[in-house]
């Protein structure tokens, strides 16, 4: 019969999150040898490793990926049992690991987190900002509890919940020739120079969908930050599809001009991502309620 301890589960989960025994030991306030022994004893009881060792880093193998969500659930349920047993059921605490794609993380973070943080100040929010593809991958491998992205995500293990409507604008520098056109038509974009986000970004995917509706142009630059694209466009290096929420100030000050393109479909949905097999503890359920 297995006799895996809570400490062993904690070490396993923290190594899975951070990739090394040293990092797990630091997080749990253990010595590195103690953390190593806990992992070794758990693997001995399982009669199988849960990590592949590669160049000093530990990566979950297939067995580890299968067991990680169960280990996380056991730890969360144990913590919840302790709160309820001590009469503190209404006081949420612990960590919540949230991923946000760039538009959400940089321009809508107050909208995403504000209500929850005000209601549950004892819960520590660990926010990771990356592109939609990276956030979806992190939800899949359980390194994030929940994600919020602006791109379409299709995977049988991911539940997608609509959150907000969002839209892009085609932006140019004030002296760009297209800003002088009174009635823009698709043919006016022939040969246009475009500044795009990197592959894997939802803004890139929406931009490419729009470009398919226009004559051929030229991609002159790929950048992985919206602010960098705004600077490039303002400098006259090209035009770009940018989230409306990200360019409000630049439009108001005249640094950028939004081109009128009713013939382009630049609308999209912001969505909450959840792993279908993840245990949804009290903190996660409270967060989901706050963004519903």
From TrEMBL:
- Source organism, top-level taxon: Bacteria
Annotated ranges, domain HTH lysR-type: 4-61
Keywords, comma-separated and alphabetical:
DNA-binding, Transcription, Transcription regulation
InterPro entries, per database record: LysR_HTH_N, LysR_subst-bd, WH-like_DNA-bd_sf, WH_DNA-bd_sf
Q: Is the Transcription keyword given for this protein?
A: yes
The UniProt family comment states: Belongs to the LysR transcriptional regulatory family.
- Name under which the protein is recorded: LysR family transcriptional regulator
